[in-house]
Amino acid sequence: MSQVIAVTSGKGGTGKTTLCAAVATCLAAEGHSVLCIDVDLGLRNLDISLGMAEQAPISFADVIAGRYELRDAAPHPEIPGLFLLTSPVVDMGDRIRFQDFDAMLQDVRKRYEYCLIDSPAGIGNGFRFATRYADEVILVATPDPASLRDAARTADQLIGMGSERIRLVVNRVTHALFRRLRWTVDDMMDEVGVPLLGLVPEDESVVLAAAANQPLISRTDRGAALAYLHIARRLQGRRVPLLRI
């Protein structure tokens, strides 16, 4: 059964796009057919995190308009089963109807096992496109109090919009920061009000992989890459322990 997963955050800078790309590549590397859709209207960069910056992907708006079909989605050059529809270069949110986006997702569900939608932060049209029709929302935050508070507000908005399955990923975690803030995993879940999907450590390999136009899992299988693999396996319903940080 196909699963549509939106990846969003309460504010920018949480590593949401990196997580979306990394989890998608892990799912594809484990044999699933995966489509990534970037709906960060006018500010697309999912292609960089996927290692597809030099590809010529088409936008989801072109598919909706009938200029291309889903089968024209750009394939990943290294990872079989992974495809990308990017966002339009300019913000066309006011010209794309929600019912048309929903109709495209219905076709996506027939063609791919997983669809990961990279949502912009905030509550604009891109956020609504990404989350309104998703089966699950991954809410990404960093472990600082301001980010967790923004995540809590976003969770409230999602619940008000009818989202029934929301899980939290805390990104860029360091042991030293945990110790100084005196946070526990339970504290973070209580602050945001949704269950935890995963913890991801701070890892310079994330930046180095993007700079080299490589997917993270092509560069390393440790640190953040291992945490993203664990998250991908939890999305498949498998029991995987939290990464020790």
Task: Characterise this structure.
- With 245 residues, the protein is α/β, with parallel strands linked by helices.
- The protein has a single domain, classed as 3-Layer(aba) Sandwich (Rossmann fold), CATH 3.40.50.300.
- The protein contains 10 helices and 8 strands.
- It has helices at residues 16-29, 46-50, 60-64, 98-111, 125-132, 145-160, 175-181, 185-192, 205-211, 224-235; strands at 3-9, 34-38, 74-75, 82-85, 114-118, 136-141, 166-173, 196-201.
- It has an 8-stranded mixed sheet, sandwiched between helices.
- It is globular, with a radius of gyration of 17 Å.
- The two termini are 33 Å apart.
- The model has no long low-confidence stretch (mean pLDDT 89).
Give short descriptive properties of this protein.
245 residues; Rossmann fold; 8-stranded mixed sheet; 10 helices; 39% helix
Total strands: the figure is: 8
Give the low-pLDDT segments.
Answer: none
Order of helices and strands: EHEHHEEHEHEHEHHEHH
Q: Which percent range fits the helix content?
A: 25-40%
Q: State the major sheet.
A: 8 strands, mixed
What is the C-level CATH assignment?
Alpha Beta
Fourth-level CATH superfamily: P-loop containing nucleotide triphosphate hydrolases
Number of domains: 1
Strand order of the largest sheet: 3-4-2-5-1-6-7-8
Radius of gyration: 17 Å
Number of helices: 10
Mean of residue pLDDT values:
89
* CATH architecture verdict: 3-Layer(aba) Sandwich
Strand content: 15-25%
Overall geometry comes to: globular
Structural class: alpha/beta
Q: Which fold name corresponds to the CATH topology?
A: Rossmann fold
**N-to-C span:** 33 Å
